[in-house]
DNA sequence: CGCGTAGGCTACGCGCCAGTAGGTTACGCG
DNA sequence: CGCGTAACCTACTGGCGCGTAGCCTACGCG
């Protein structure tokens, strides 16, 4: 009689929770919130369904916990990369590099944050938006700060918040593009954005404004 | 005996289809594909549910038809605005203005295209991506064309496709921002982007590349 | 004035899936 | 060695919502 291979058994709660969250991120990122089924998550996690409910609560709870964990990871990855003592452009550059490195390393995390999070209407779609807003405000602080140094104030051609929204959007969109082009390094991606944005911004600061021609 | 107010009756098929599509866009944009219910759409349309199925098919069919109608509207709005005989920067500027005007005028159309369309995995998420890719390639053509004039070729600092992806993302993101700031005109929004992108791009063309400092 | 057809509805079936009831086995500790 | 408790499962239910069967009614046309 061959002894049965033991299916990993009697693990402490903390370990199981991590397994479940990992599986959930994977399945949510692949199928989206609504299409993903708790049965499949439990299967991928190698755990039965009631475990999920006793440990992590309802489907919505589970999703929220995924989002929060991945968001925290992302923000920490960026903050670890940026060096506050450097000039604004280098801060931005390092932040962007860390961001693209994270996206490349944790595709599923990024997908679940960027693509799937908005699809669950209501309560914590707001939470995601809040996180995104924080990112925008952070960038805005950089930009406005750099602008203020040169005496760029409330002109019609300038809105720190608006420009930051555009910049963040550009970064996100480029991240999606990069998922299909894994050969492009994070340094190159960050450089593209810097060339686009920082140079243009510098011109603005110098008063070199683009105007429509007749 | 007061005569009953007649509930709009016996309308021709084409009219009903429009009513249904209008209602569907509204409901889908508010709740998203999965959360939206056919019952609510029928209610908003002022029509019973079987009508939707006989006229427009399944829920997925209905959503696809919404997407296609709104996408066509958007692309036409942009193409009507742009004048091909103008120089590249002015073409881009007019295209952007038309885009922001559209978003302001048809918020629901934009929402359903941008936010909700990606949430339905599979078949025609691809369709949306295709449309977006077309937009990116269009912009890329503009950019590459303008770059080629100045002899900017395959440098590490340059990728028409990548930059275009970033630009489109910036435009979309700014559109979302603008939804919360209705007082900002389409001309101003377009100018911001031109200042960011075109000036930076011009610098690139001139060989003025941003490089990280030690 | 009858009959075909296009416009329209109420009311139901049925599958899928989030969530649960209730029971079983291993481990820790006195 | 027995008792509490924490880990873990199988097997069910209940509801929500897509899609439809079947029926009614106004209008046009000979």
From TrEMBL, chains A, B:
The UniProt record lists the keyword Transcription regulation: yes
Cited PROSITE patterns: HTH_TETR_2
DNA-binding region: 37-56
Tagged with keyword Transcription regulation: yes
Residues in HTH tetR-type domain copies: 14-74
InterPro entries in alphabetical order: DesT_TetR_C (IPR054129), Homeodomain-like_sf (IPR009057), HTH-type_TetR-like_transc_reg (IPR050109), HTH_TetR (IPR001647)
Family matches, as SUPFAM superfamilies: Homeodomain-like
Keywords per UniProt: DNA-binding, Transcription, Transcription regulation
PANTHER family, per the entry: HTH-TYPE TRANSCRIPTIONAL REGULATOR RUTR, POSSIBLE TRANSCRIPTIONAL REGULATORY PROTEIN (PROBABLY TETR-FAMILY)
Protein name (database record): TetR/AcrR family transcriptional regulator
Organism for this UniProt entry: Amycolatopsis minnesotensis
């Amino acid at each position: 009689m061959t002894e049965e291979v033991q299916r990993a058994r009697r693990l402490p709660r903390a370990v199981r929770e991590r397994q479940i969250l990992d599986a959930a991120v994977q399945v949510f990122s692949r199928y989206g919130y609504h299409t993903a089924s708790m049965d499949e998550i439990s299967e991928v996690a190698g755990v039965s369904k009631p475990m999920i409910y006793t440990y992590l609560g309802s489907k919505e709870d589970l999703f929220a916990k995924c989002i929060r964990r991945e968001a925290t990871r992302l923000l920490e990855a960026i903050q670890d990369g940026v060096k506050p003592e450097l000039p604004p452009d280098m801060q931005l550059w390092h932040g962007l590099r860390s961001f693209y490195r994270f996206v490349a390393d944790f595709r599923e995390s990024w997908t679940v944050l960027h693509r799937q999070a908005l699809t669950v209407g209501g309560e914590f779609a707001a939470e995601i938006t809040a996180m995104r807003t924080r990112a925008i405000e952070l960038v805005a602080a950089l930009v406005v700060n750099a602008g203020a140094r040169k005496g760029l104030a409330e002109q019609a051609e300038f809105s720190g918040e608006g420009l930051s929204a555009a910049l963040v959007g550009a970064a996100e969109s480029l991240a999606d593009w990069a998922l299909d082009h894994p050969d492009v390094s994070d340094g190159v991606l960050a450089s593209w954005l810097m060339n686009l944005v920082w140079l243009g911004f510098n011109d603005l600061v110098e008063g070199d404004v683009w105007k429509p021609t007749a």
